[in-house]
Specification:
7 helices; about 260 residues; about 25% helix; alpha/beta
């Protein structure tokens, strides 16, 4: 089975995204699916150009499968199309001037397109999502207590949870002995119930556009469950000039799309 390329956090950085696409084309093992786990827009770069690039892949390129991220949710709120009008979370975190800048850099047409995106993707035994099923802002990291990671895995009902909110590239394995639950009734506490016999893991897929000159993403092979973290370094000699890449090998929403 061919690989998946999984990324998050373009954040308006079209140069970084182009460098990443070039790196995908250079892979020895072909890539069959391209997943973008939200935060395609951000505070820097050209948000309109990134949206247009995602909407219109070039001949021979993979069709990017895109889900909603935290920055997209803030755009919904700024355009009074979300659950929190005027984006109070964004203003509290970044300030009113920043919120105004985001509003001006993302057109209503782009927002309408982003509203059509999925909350996440459920493919094979994998959930691919920006934060978690708890919400877009749910930031999973390697330092999160094991009990919380277990909770997110159980909620996801998947063996592999790929997420992008933290911007980090990491994998955390949860062994079967860690995934058990007990039920307390009037008759007392019942025996622990295992949540599955196979290990499960949370994978942070990295961030494309946040650090200038460096984009990180993840390759996943469903056939052997193998993860490869990729770092693409790029410059700006001719729009962008790929300097090279490095790799590191590692072992409830109705809008979540089920596997085909």
């Amino acid at each position: 089975m061919e690989q998946w390329a999984i990324l998050s956090g373009i954040e308006g950085n079209l140069v970084a995204y182009e460098a990443l696409l070039d790196d995908i084309r250079r892979q020895r093992d072909s890539v069959a699916e391209l997943y973008v786990l939200g935060d395609v827009v951000g505070l820097k770069g050209d948000n309109r150009a990134v949206v247009q690039r995602l909407q219109s892949p070039r001949t021979g390129e993979l069709e990017p499968q895109v889900c909603i991220g935290w920055w997209e949710e803030q755009c919904f709120n700024l355009y009074l199309l979300g659950g929190l009008p005027d984006a109070p979370e964004l203003i509290a975190q970044e300030g009113a001037d920043t919120a105004q800048h985001l509003f001006e850099s993302v057109s209503r047409e782009s927002v309408e397109w982003m509203r059509s995106l999925h909350f996440g993707f459920h493919e094979l035994d994998c959930l691919l999502i920006h934060g978690s099923t708890v919400g877009y802002a749910d930031e999973l990291t390697p330092d999160m207590p094991a009990i919380q990671l277990c909770d997110r895995l159980i909620r996801a009902d998947a063996k592999n949870l790929f997420c992008g909110r933290s911007g980090l590239a990491f994998e955390c394995w949860i062994e079967p002995s860690d995934l058990c639950s007990t039920i307390v009734t009037l008759e007392g506490t019942q025996a622990p119930k295992e949540q599955g016999r196979s290990p499960r893991r949370v994978v942070g897929v990295g961030n494309v556009g946040r650090i200038l000159g460096q984009a990180t993403y993840t390759l996943y092979n469903p056939a052997n469950n193998h993860i490869t973290f990729k770092t693409v370094k790029y410059g700006k000699a001719k729009g962008f000039a790929l300097q090279g890449s490095q790799s590191q090998h590692g072992h409830e929403s109705p809008d979540i799309r089920a596997s085909r």
